[in-house]
Design goal:
This protein is an alpha+beta fold. It has five helices and 21 strands. The longest helix is centred in the N-terminal third of the chain and has 34 residues. It is elongated, with a radius of gyration of 45 Å. This is Efflux RND transporter periplasmic adaptor subunit. Pfam families: Beta-barrel_RND (PF25944), BSH_RND (PF25917), HH_MFP_RND (PF25876), RND-MFP_C (PF25967). Its main location: other. GO terms for molecular function: transmembrane transporter activity.
Length: about 400
């Protein structure tokens, strides 16, 4: 009896061991395909924007200089205030120039009297010549004296006019309407017109700048300009006309300026020192918020890019090979596609190559997939979906996978 019971227990034990042994050899169930949010790639046209750093300069700038020599007696404007064209800003001592004018006027009066006498004499001799009271030589000499006196009067009148001009220059006026800056020479100093120093101008007294509109000067490298021209010839980009190229200035505190500027000058030659081409834009400045000499960053809308793809930044990854995107193929498997992208537009990367129309680019859940695996797709709805898929997906990305960041 005991022998029979032992045999039965042995048979049961062997059956259980066989059952457990067979379970260890069965393959584990396949994990479910991860769910990802995808967007369908569609070509579009986007603005062609480039960022630059420029420096502001006044629309008009004029130096107020002394045009005659003398002692500066007073300043007749408030520094930093707006002045009108022709407004007197400085006064130079006029005593010497008034004396010169008075002397020239006296000389003119004297020579005018001589001219009147010579003309009367010549007229009288012309009347006496027919009756033989005077000779022809006498008449000719009288005519010559009259002409000489007339010429002397003309010279005196020119001297008087010159003296008046120099006297007027003792009142130094503004050449343009604008903001007058700080005076460069104080009262009591001797200023000059620069006539004794070859090649130099008069003494600089102040500067007047017109700032209701400003220029912003910047440069673009010759290589970038050639690239744009080549892309234009291929039809990849459409460059805007110069007067339709808009410029958005960013203030030094990072906020955008509320007035758009317009490109108004492009140089026709490359600077031999820097290898760059100079450009200039005109910026409205009605509130005088911008100041000449200020450095600003600016975004220039040069036209538009044709047939490019806008892809959210989180969908573009980078490794040692370059930039790439993960795409779900028609068979539901994940495929890597290397892409060309160097610029961004708003919150998206601009992809210029590597994608095809209709590609389903993985935007949400990209950290939980790798090339060759199956993925379950849903239309991407934005950052909320990205967050939810990231939380429900694997805790870490596959080995060697690295999320992209904007460079």
């Amino acid at each position: 009896m005991s022998l029979l019971l032992s045999s039965r227990l042995s048979i049961v034990s062997i059956g259980l061991l066989s059952l457990f042994g067979c379970g260890k050899n069965d393959p584990p169930p396949a994990p479910p395909a991860p769910q990802v949010g995808v967007m369908e790639a569609e070509p579009s046209n986007v603005p062609l924007n480039h960022s630059f750093v420029g420096r502001l300069s006044p629309y008009y700038s004029a130096n107020v200089t002394a045009r005659v020599s003398g002692v500066l007696t007073k300043r007749l404007y408030t520094e930093g205030s707006e002045v009108k064209a022709g407004q007197t800003l400085f006064q130079i001592d006029p005593t010497y120039y008034q004396t010169v004018l008075d002397n020239d006027l006296a000389t003119l009066a004297q020579d005018q009297a001589t001219f009147v006498n010579d003309r009367t004499t010549a007229e009288r001799y012309h009347k006496l010549l027919p009756i033989g009271s005077v000779s022809q030589q006498t008449v000719d000499d009288a005519d010559a004296a009259e002409r000489s006196a007339a010429a002397k009067v003309k010279a005196d009148e020119a001297a008087v006019e010159g003296a008046r001009v120099n006297l007027g220059y003792t009142k130094v006026t503004s050449p343009i309407t604008g903001i007058a800056g700080q005076q460069q020479v104080t009262g009591g100093a001797v200023v000059g017109n620069g006539t004794t120093d070859a090649g130099s101008g008069g003494t600089l007294l102040a500067t007047v700048e017109q700032v209701d509109s400003l220029y912003v000067n910047f440069t673009i490298s010759a290589a970038d300009l050639i690239t744009l021209k080549q892309a234009q010839s291929k039809g990849d980009v459409a460059l805007a006309a110069q007067n339709k190229t808009t410029v958005q200035v960013m203030l030094p505190n990072g906020t955008p300026y509320d007035q758009l500027g317009t490109l108004d000058f492009t140089d026709v030659s490359v600077n031999s020192t820097t290898g760059a081409v100079s450009l200039r834009a005109q910026i409205p400045n009605p509130q005088h918020q911008l100041l000449p000499g200020m450095y600003v960053s600016l975004n220039v809308d040069l036209g538009q890019r044709n047939d490019v793809y806008l892809v959210p930044q989180q969908a573009i990854q980078r490794d040692t090979v370059g930039s790439y995107a993960m795409v779900v193929g028609a068979d539901g498997k994940v495929v890597r596609k290397d892409v060309d992208t160097n610029d961004s537009y708003r919150s998206d990367w601009i992809v210029t190559g590597g994608l095809a129309p209709g590609d389903r680019v993985i935007v949400a859940g990209v950290q939980g997939v790798r090339e060759g695996m199956l993925a379950k797709t849903t239309p991407w709805r934005g950052t909320d979906q990205n967050t939810s898929l990231s939380q429900s997906g694997p805790a870490s990305s596959p080995s060697g996978h690295r999320s992209g960041s904007k460079s």
